[in-house]
Amino acid sequence: xxxxxxxxxxxxxxxxxxxxxxxxxxxxxxxxxxxxxRHEDELVECTEPGCRDLDLVRHTLSVSCAExxxxxxxxxxxxxxxxxxx
Length: 86
Prior knowledge:
With 86 residues, the protein is α+β, with helices and mostly antiparallel strands. It contains 3 helices and 3 strands, in the order ααβββα. The chain is elongated, with a radius of gyration of 20 Å.
């Protein structure tokens, strides 16, 4: 067993012996492990490669594109359009 950096051997041995399993996978529920990203223009995309069903109920994690580090091109466009309209 490899030792995790900065953790005492007793914690490493006890905590990392079992493999974590996704409860939805075990229950064979239709779900996605990716994060659903909701854009200002109502477009949605998923961070999981190959995800084709972008329904909110399939995704445990969902964020607005404005919450993404570095922002998103659509929030910049939305802010620019808002500024021009004022």
